[in-house]
Amino acid sequence: MYDLTFFRTNLEKIQQRLATRGFTLDIESFQELDRQRRQCVTESEQLKAERNHASAEIAKLRKAGEDTSKRQQEVRAIGERIAELENHVDKFDSEFRDFLARIPNLPDETVPVGRDERDNREVRRWGKPPEFSFEPKAHWDLGPELGILDLERAAKVAGARFAVYWGIGARLERALINFMLDLHTREHGYQEVLPPFLVNSASLYGTGQLPKFAEDLFRCEGHDLWLAPTAEVPVTNLFRDETLNTDHLPISLCAYTPCFRSEAGSYGRDVRGIIRQHQFQKVELVKFTKPEQSRQEHEKLTRDAEDVLQRLELPYRTVALCTADLGFSSAKTYDIEVWLPGQNGYKEISSCSNFEAFQARRAQIRSKSGKGKAEFVHTLNGSGLAVGRTWVAIVENYQQEDGSVVIPAALRPYLNAERIDRSGGRLL
Questions:
Q1: Tens of pLDDT, residues 20-37
Q2: Which of 261, 361, 362, 366 is catalytic?
Q3: Does the annotation mark 418 as catalytic?
Q4: Best exposed site among 1, 230, 241, 322 by fewest CB in 10 Å?
């Protein structure tokens, strides 16, 4: 979301920067809307001055004992026109808000310019993909063979893009959630929060999912409630319409939530297995920072997410998204991609984004210290991590020739086990 004055005075620069995202800004429509609004405001101000003058004149006429009925009628007509113009201005303001709400954030100057994901820039790599003496399997084969993943029964219960975990497969999911929360709260300095899993429209507007991406969400019929697509939405909106104490920034929060997405724009992508689901679990990292510290905190948040993979000894790479591949609200994003042997490639497991003031302006989240002026905070978030994809990465990277899966050392205290084999899965 943009400040209207900033937008009005920087139209060409904004248009050029948005073009690097592949977004075409309709300057002509904005200028025509702005012209009509200004015209109404100017006429209204002129009429208010005229009404004030006429009211003073009526007072004098009354004092002199003269008839003021005609002049009073003229003043009433002026008042009716002013009310009409103010209604027009309110309508134009609403159209401005809708116009601006559909425009993506400006890319940070450090974001590489590109046309699609092929222009994303690799920043670093960690670990080496494992070498196998056998042909590694994908999780959609390994999981059912071990009896820990059941896609057929999930489809019977809910449809495609859902999963059932059995036995130690379910425990592995739960262990990952606890491991991630413990790491981020005990070592990385985040405060854990458990937010609602249902959110209202105002919350989705605040973080930028509405109005543009309604088709990607699940809505509860008959209620102003939606299933949260990510913990970013409820956690960021905890401070909606509030002014925080600047001295308390940065605020670092982490939350586990199930996430629900219709994936309306992703049909045909990642159709096998559990890479792209309608329901999945995630541990999210969210920060509220001063504007001058958001870049530094963005780097720290990304490293915090990477640390999960390092502790689990899973190879990954981190890439800076180019301008055309940025999410709607993001000014800069790093994608962390984990190596999946069964698919012979890297797959996104976390997106760590700096939204600068874009979300804070939509959600009206400010900070202030003492008698200083309140300003919009910067918001950041990233998956720390997507639990299902971490589950996949463990099963595929730690698979053994006999079909079992070794449990990473960091997770063994949570599972009280060292290996997943056929005895730990479905019993029936």
A1: 999 999 999 999 999 999
A2: 261
A3: no
A4: 241
